[in-house]
Design a protein that fits this description.
Blueprint (H helix, E strand, L loop, with lengths): L6 H15 L1 H35 L11 H4 L3
Length: 75
């Protein structure tokens, strides 16, 4: 169905969308999409940094026994 859409079809769709929603709403929507993408990238970068820092901190730690006193005899 959409195999034969060319430049004229895309332009027609763009004009219809512009008429229906108006230039201001479309500009606002694109601004929100841009903010969302920026926020997503920042979150991914912070998550990667957090994982990297956590793995650096854990290098010097040793395992410790957290079994309650009363259960250590049965283990």
């Amino acid at each position: 169905m959409l195999n034969n859409i060319g430049l004229p079809g895309i332009l027609l769709i763009a004009v219809v969308v512009l008429v229906l929603f108006g230039r201001g709403k479309i500009a606002g929507l694109m601004g929100e999409v841009g903010k969302g993408i920026t926020s997503f990238k920042r979150g991914v970068r912070e998550g990667a940094d957090e994982i990297e820092n956590a793995s650096d901190d854990d290098v010097g730690e040793t395992a410790r026994d957290v079994t309650p006193e009363r259960d250590r005899e049965n283990a």
